[in-house]
User: Fold DoxX family protein from Streptomyces pyxinicus.
Amino acid sequence: MNLALWIATGLLAAVALTGGVSKTFVPKERLAAVHGGGWTANVGAGFVKSLGVLELLAAAGLVLTAALGIAAFLVPVTAICWTLLMAGAMITHGRRGERGLVLLNLAYLALAAFIAWGRLGPAPFAA
Assistant:
C-alpha cells in the first residue's frame, strides 16, 4: 500500500508541478491559446498566477514534506485541498463543454482522494 501511495503521490505531484509552472510563468495569452487553457481568457492574470503558485505549493506539500520528514501530515491535507481544486476545475471545464477535461480532472481528483484516504487511514506516515 505504501508503494502505491508513493507512486500516486509522485504522479499527482508531477501534474501539480507542470500545471503550476505553466500557470505561474507562461503569459496568460499563451495559456489561452493552448487546448484546455481557454478559461484563462475570462479571468485576470493575477488569478491564473495565484492558481499556479497554489499548484507549486501542492507539489511541494505532496512530496517534500514526507520525503524530508518535516510535517508529513501535510500530505493528506494537501491531497484534500487538491480534490477541492479539481472540483472547481471540473465545474469550470464543464461550463465550457470540455467533457474530456472534466474526466481528466476527475481522474486527478480520484488520485488525490486515494492519497488522502491512504495517508489518513491504512498507511499513515510514522510519527
In short: The helical segments are 2-25, 28-33, 45-67, 74-95, 99-120. The longest helix spans residues 2-25. The mean pLDDT is 95.
